[in-house]
Design brief:
It contains six helices and no strands. With 107 residues, it is mainly alpha-helical. Helix 3 packs across helix 4 and helix 4 packs parallel to helix 6. It starts with a helix and ends in a 5-residue tail after the last helix. The N terminus is likely disordered.
Length: 107
């Protein structure tokens, strides 16, 4: 039985991710208020609800959603990412997806 779900539901863990999101948004020059940070966390949690994500994977998905929001990314691109996460069969696929969008094409 996996304990990762209990980590993601742990209030201290949730607060830690939300605080990190708040700090990251400030570092990116777009400080977010508490409700916005909570919304991003909840969106990430919901996207991963079909899996039992590790705390790191949940944080990485939340961070990706944050970057999409503060960079004013096209809505379609953000929706595409969300659809892809929902289609992932396991945590490894989610990690591979995040890695693939983080890579810079050599072309």
């Amino acid at each position: 039985m996996s304990t990762s779900v209990s980590h993601s539901e742990d209030p201290d863990f949730r607060s830690s991710i939300q605080e990190n999101l708040k700090q990251l948004s400030a570092q990116l020059g777009y400080p977010l208020d508490e409700p916005s940070v909570m919304e991003i966390y909840q969106d990430a949690y919901d996207l991963l609800s079909h899996l039992s994500p590790s705390p790191l994977t949940l944080a990485r998905v939340a961070g990706t959603l944050l970057v999409y929001r503060v960079n004013d990314t096209e809505l379609e691109e953000s929706k595409w990412f969300s659809r892809q996460v929902k289609q992932c069969l396991d945590e490894e696929e989610v990690e591979e997806l995040i890695e693939s969008i983080s890579r810079t094409d050599a072309l």
